[in-house]
């Protein structure tokens, strides 16, 4: 009897060693993420198509306000992201229960109606981001075709190009990539996307600087574009939304944090990755936005690499736009995977038989691939839907501004601030409590006016 007990105990210890080697403390497979993979995820999520609208956004506000607003959004995003990172585990930051999604953190800390509101804000914003990325990728693909056409015809052909075929092509690519099961398995796509980001950002900066050298002067003004008063106001509001979109990644921060291996603690790694990512992002944003505005002044295009400013060398512009497209393929997946996971988790609980249906696809020389039928159908329908909506409202700056405005305050500011106040038990009316609540109110006002400006922009574009 003693021998059997000893043998059972020994087997249990061996199993525990095996489990701890391959599984984390919550029984899930070991997470692979380190600082650099996590930084790649964040950079891929933060820096998307919004980077190329920054020169236009600065032009709406001018050198002083434009740069100041960009630094403001950078500081707020960095500050609130650090607060949000502390919410990944409830209680102890090393051994406490994990919150796998943004909604899980809100549910465990705030609860009540906040959970519903968070779900609506987060997943609407994620869906909107896929539309913005589809529009952005099509504009870059159009720019490649137009650039080659203008070069071949030496400017004689106006080279009118339709966006729809490119949106459809981007959608087809996303249908295939969307079959990647979860965000843990797209780390390689994030690294490729991050490399592409630095490629096209460097090209955009280089072209802007060369244009400034060619002009022998810095263009732009301290107060920005000088058209009619009402239009100026709408332009400023829309520019705020564009910059907010350019910094939006809080809605996937917890999901990214859930890909991090430990030890060290996930909080320590995500904070280090956030420092690196926000610093790199702000550096590139200032260079891209300022070089573009200095090159073209108040006439800068909504997308600096696809406007009418840069024509030569056409092959370099083509490389830059191709890099944008590849980056947006990865960015699309970073944003959409949490939405896929949310829906599939709900379906799995309610209709387990539907979610468990799989199809075995034989692969010569390899083990067969198990294709989940529900995943195939639902994700394909989702991509088709977002592509069709993108084709109906292909207004780049307006759409980015609206998405950024709707998501910035609730996801980047309100929820992180409210959870931080509760977690840290900050006394009501203390100096820090007043500061955090004031910050939240200011950001709410910024988001509200940005949303109004973007809606007006969409209406004006539709009417014209």
TrEMBL record:
Protein's UniProt keywords contain Endoplasmic reticulum: no
InterPro entries for the chain: AA_transpt_TM (IPR013057)
Location, primary (coarse class): membrane
Start and end residues of each Amino acid transporter transmembrane domain: 32-459
GO biological process: amino acid transport; auxin-activated signaling pathway
Lineage top rank: taxon: Eukaryota
Alphabetic keyword roster: Amino-acid transport, Auxin signaling pathway, Cell membrane, Membrane, Symport, Transmembrane, Transmembrane helix, Transport
Function recorded in the entry: Carrier protein involved in proton-driven auxin influx. Mediates the formation of auxin gradient from developing leaves (site of auxin biosynthesis) to tips by contributing to the loading of auxin in vascular tissues and facilitating acropetal (base to tip) auxin transport within inner tissues of the root apex, and basipetal (tip to base) auxin transport within outer tissues of the root apex. May be involved in lateral roots and nodules formation.
Designated name of the protein: Amino acid transporter transmembrane domain-containing protein
Lineage: Eukaryota, Viridiplantae, Streptophyta, Embryophyta, Tracheophyta
């Amino acid at each position: 009897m003693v021998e059997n007990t000893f043998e059972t105990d020994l087997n249990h210890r061996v199993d525990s060693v095996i489990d701890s080697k391959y599984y984390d403390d919550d029984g899930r497979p070991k997470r692979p993420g380190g600082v650099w993979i996590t930084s790649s995820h964040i950079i891929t999520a933060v820096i998307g198509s919004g980077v190329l609208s920054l020169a236009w956004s600065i032009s709406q506000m001018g050198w002083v306000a434009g740069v100041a607003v960009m630094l403001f959004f950078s500081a707020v995003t960095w500050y609130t992201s650090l607060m949000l990172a502390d919410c990944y585990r409830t209680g102890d930051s090393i051994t406490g229960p994990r919150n796998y999604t943004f909604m899980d953190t809100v549910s465990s800390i705030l609860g009540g109606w906040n959970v519903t509101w968070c779900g609506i804000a987060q997943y609407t914003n994620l869906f909107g981001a896929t539309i913005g990325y589809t529009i952005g990728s099509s504009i870059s693909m159009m720019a490649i075709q137009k650039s080659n056409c203008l070069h071949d015809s030496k400017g004689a052909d106006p080279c009118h190009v339709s966006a729809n075929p490119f949106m459809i092509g981007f959608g087809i690519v996303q249908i295939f990539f969307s079959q990647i099961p979860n965000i843990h398995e797209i780390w390689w796509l994030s690294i490729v996307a991050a490399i592409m980001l630095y490629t096209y950002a460097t090209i955009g900066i280089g072209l802007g600087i060369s244009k400034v050298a060619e002009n022998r002067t810095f263009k732009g003004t301290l107060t920005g574009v000088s058209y009619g008063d009402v239009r100026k106001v709408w332009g400023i509001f829309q520019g705020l939304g564009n910059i907010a979109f350019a910094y939006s990644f809080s809605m996937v921060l917890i999901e990214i944090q859930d890909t991090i291996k430990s030890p060290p603690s996930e909080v320590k790694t995500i904070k280090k990755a956030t420092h690196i990512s926000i610093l790199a992002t702000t550096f590139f944003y200032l260079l891209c936005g300022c070089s573009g505005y200095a090159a073209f002044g108040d006439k800068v295009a909504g997308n600096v690499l696809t406007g009418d400013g840069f024509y030569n060398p056409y092959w370099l512009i083509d490389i830059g736009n191709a890099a944008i497209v590849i980056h947006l393929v990865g960015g699309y997946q970073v944003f959409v995977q949490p939405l896929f996971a949310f829906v599939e988790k709900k379906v799995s609980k309610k209709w387990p038989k539907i979610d468990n249906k799989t199809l075995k696809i034989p692969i010569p020389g390899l083990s067969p691939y198990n294709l989940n039928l529900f995943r195939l159908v639902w994700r394909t329908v989702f991509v088709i839907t977002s592509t069709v909506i993108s084709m109906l409202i292909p207004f780049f700056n307006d759409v980015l501004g609206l998405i950024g405005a709707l998501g910035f305050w609730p996801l980047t500011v309100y929820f992180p601030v409210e959870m931080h106040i509760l977690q840290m038990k900050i006394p009501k009316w203390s100096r820090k409590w007043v500061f955090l609540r004031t910050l939240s109110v200011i950001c709410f006002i910024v988001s509200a006016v940005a949303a109004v400006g973007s809606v007006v922009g969409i209406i004006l574009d539709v009417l014209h």
